[in-house]
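quick one, two chains, predict together pls
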Amino acid sequence: MNCEWVRENISAYIDSELTESRKKMIDSHLSVCSGCKAEFARLLTAWDALKLWEDKQPPLYLKEAILKGIKRERSSKLLRILLPVAALLIITFSIVLFYDETNHYDKKTLISEKTKGEISIQTTKGDLDEDEIIANLQIIEEKDFFDSIEMLKNIDYLPVIENHDDKKSSMGYFSA
Amino acid sequence: MEDIDIDFKLMDRVKKGDESAFEEIVSRHYHSVYNLANRFLYSTSEAEDITQEVFLRVFRASKSYTPTAKFSTWLYTITKNLCFNELRKLRSVQILSIEDEMLPEIPSKSDNPALKLEKEEMKTKVREAVMALPANLRIAVLLLKYHGRSYEEVAQILGCTVNAVKLRIHRAKDFLAKSIGYLSEETK
């Protein structure tokens, strides 16, 4: 063991980073070598002096600022997830609504009796109620029925249809 | 060992979305992060910004965090990287590798700010001496001396070998001994 080896390891010796055997070797060398002992004292004094630069207390608001930053990060993260979902939902909803409107517009008819004896057909937007449709159909049926009766009242006779085999058949008379 | 376990457990809770766990992590470590950044850059405002950024990065990485090393090692690595980025921005300092790294000249009487303020306290001398260290040596000194890291941990944080750390620390001590000794004589 020589002085060069000791000086190479003296810094690690100060930091207690040497193995026990190496530490003992340096211990014994320092007890006999004044030059290495002086070098050890020089480095140790400087190293110990660093303790004078004490820790600084972080400002009180720093912790709060860190946590606020994290909160902002959390909300922006949430927004990054929610925004595309919301946009997708809005787009889907708009498409469905538009499709529904174009397909059903003018298809629904509302038939109502405007004046006595007259049937008027109206084209409207919106859904038709099932009961309403049935009611409208009944009006049409009834109207046809009564029209037929009116027509029959004005007929004096029923035409006779003659067959080739001279057989006559009559539809008969119908009177109200 | 218990401290390591606490950090791992806290990070596991953060992973699961526990806000209070993250607050606990901040409480446990923001003091150290702030002081490392402050001593390295010697700027409280920069140190505050870096501390905030460090924890923001920890939070962002929490989902993918896997405990391969000590939590504090990871935390100091992030801090070191941000400090070096800041230093590059502030001073356009070129970070040299340990092989090319040249120690600066011992400051002369005329250009040393500590000497401009005559009879300045030893505290200031020490601070000036540390700040005069090249960045690669300074960060090693700060981690070892003020944050109680071992050579091995410093090597992990700096991404170099243990021998490189040993060499850096030795050179730093030599430089500090010269600087502090020199300043002490001058201010007598």
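The interface with chain A takes residues 22-23, 26-27, 30-31, 34-35, 38-39, 44, 48, 51-52, 55-56, 59-60, 122-123, 125-127, 129-130, 141, 144-146, 150-151, 166, 169-170, 173-174, 176-177, 179-181 of chain B (CB under 8 Å).
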